[in-house]
Amino acid sequence: MAERESIINEALTDDELHCVLSKLEREEDRDGFGLVCRRWLRLQSTSRSRLRARAGPAMLRRMAGRFSGVLDLDLSQSTSRSFFPGVTDSDLSVVAAGFPKLRVLSLHNCKSVSDAGMMVLGNGLPFLQSLDVSYCRKLTDKGLTAIALGCCDLRRLQLLGCKLITDRIFNVLSQNCSHLEELGLSGCVNISDSGLSSLVEGCHYIKSLDVSKCSKIGDVGVLRIAEVCSPSLRTLKLLECHNVSNKSIHSLAYSCRNLETLVIGGCREVFDEPLKFLVLALSYSLRSLRMDWCLNITDSSLSCVLSNCRFLVALDISCCDKVSDSAFLGLGMDEGFKSDLKVLKMSNLPRITISGIGTILQFCKSLEYVDLRSLPHVTEISCEEAGLKFPDSCKVNFCGNLLDVNPMVDLYF
Fold first, then answer.
1. Which residues form the COI1 F-box domain (predicted)?
2. Which one of 231, 240, 319, 343 has the minimum C-beta count within 10 Å?
3. Given this structure, which CATH class describes domain 276-413?
4. H, E, C per residue of the chain
5. Could you give the count of Cα atoms lying within 13 Å of 376 in the half-sphere of its Cβ?
6. Contact indicator for 120, 89 with CB cutoff of 8 Å
7. Cα–Cα distance, 156 to 104 (Å, whole number)
8. Contact, 253 vs 278, CB < 8 A?
9. Averaged pLDDT for residues 308-325
10. Binning pLDDT at 50, 70 and 90, where does residue 14 land?
11. Domain boundaries in the chain?
12. How far apart are CA 27 and CA 112, in angstroms?
């Protein structure tokens, strides 16, 4: 066996072995490649570009020595199974020194990380393009300013749940990170319209913006985003932004014709006519629409959504209590109509009956998930008695806590 390995090693150059390794798609096969001999292990280690680890400083140093080509490092912690103290600022010092070529770093839910760690990363990772520090609750503008100053090629920044940051960070991002495309700010309660206006002074190419549960965000900020980033904007999430009204919807309709994902759940100042105007403007682009708890939405606008957004794959109309079966009658008006809808959430709709569900099933043959919880006139038994047939691969949720989250649904909203 050793003689056979020697013959192979003499015949193949490092470049040729790298070519063989690149053809192996499964992680198990790539790991098996490294078990052949020390040379193959070295090649496998240096070619590895992504690494997920749960390690302290000593182990991280060893990993840095072995996996010198890593570009994507995931140190995130699970919300359900975290360990104490988890990733610390000391670990980040090792990361900055040992992985200088890093492009992607995830520190999601690493609660021990502070501004000191961010300063180290800002000074040591000049090529960083994506950073996720969501729910790193100790972080403030000071630490993230160091990131913006040192990582000027930043394209993606996730700050979900970082409640201590303020509008001041947007000035620095605007001046230093002009290539920023994706920004997650959900739950950052201290940011305002003024901050968003400052952001787009320099960041003109935002593709995805999440300001859900940011209570100080309203029409002024949304209008400014729509005005500056309209050619690039694909995803906008405004969940529970109670100050967002019809003005924002009108602005999006006029400017953002490429929008694919829109979340306006809980925006209770949004009414039918502006929404219909938006739907007609986005009829060929919109893929996912979440408008749960939009209490002024009626059958009129929902019917417009279903009839015009032919490429819609995910829709959430939960708790829109004015919606009835009549909203679905228009589905069959166009001969040959076929919906691409895969995910439909319609829990807690007191006016929906078996008749409405039957109409949906008649024209929506691609459904993979349907949420029918808390519908007083629709139960699993009543659907069976009515002879309703859901698609074979469709998961139907008739009961359970309304706060429960389905991972597949999260992919769309």
1. 12-49
2. 231
3. alpha beta
4. CHHHHHHHHHHCCHHHHHHHHHCCCCHHHHHHHCCCCHHHHHHHHHHCCEEECCCCHHHHHHHHHHCCCCCEEECCCCCCCCCCCCCCHHHHHHHHHHCCCCCEEECCCCCCCCHHHHHHHHHHCCCCCEEECCCCCCCCHHHHHHHHHHCCCCCEEECCCCCCCCCHHHHHHHHHCCCCCEEECCCCCCCCHHHHHHHCCCCCCCCEEECCCCCCCEHHHHHHHHHHHCCCCCEEECCCCCECEHHHHHHHHHHCCCCCEEECCCCCECCHHHHHHHHHHCCCCCCEEECCCCCCCCHHHHHHHHHHCCCCCEEECCCCCCCEHHHHHHHHCCCCCCCCCCEEECCCCCECCHHHHHHHHHHCCCCCEEECCCCCCCCHHHHHHCCCCCCCCCEEECCCCCCCCCHHHHCCC
5. 6
6. yes
7. 9
8. yes
9. 95
10. low
11. 1-47, 276-413
12. 31
Orientation angle between helical segments 168-176 and 141-150, nearest 10 degrees: 0
Contact call for residues 214 and 238 (beta carbons, < 8 A) = no
Name the packing angle between helices 57-66 and 89-98 (round to 10°).
10
State the pLDDT at residue 333: 66
Contact at 8 Å (CB) between 268 and 240? no
The verdict on whether omega for the bond into residue 274 sits within 30 degrees of 0, i.e. cis, is no
List, for residues 183-218, the tens digit of each pLDDT value: 999 999 999 999 999 999 999 999 999 999 999 999
Instruction: For tokens 């020194």, name the residue.
Output: 97
Give the CB-side neighbour count of residue 247, counting CA atoms within 13 A: 12
Alpha-carbon span 230 to 206, nearest angstrom: 9
Q: Could you tell me whether strands 235-237 and 130-132 are parallel, antiparallel, or unpaired per DSSP bridges?
A: unpaired
Interaxial angle between packed helices 299-308 and 272-281, expressed in degrees from 0 to 180 and rounded to the nearest 10: 0
Distance of CA 356 to the CA centre of its chain: 31
Instruction: Judge contact between 214 and 189, C-beta under 8 A.
Output: yes
Q: Using CA atoms, how far apart are residues 253 and 156, in angstroms rounded to an integer?
A: 26
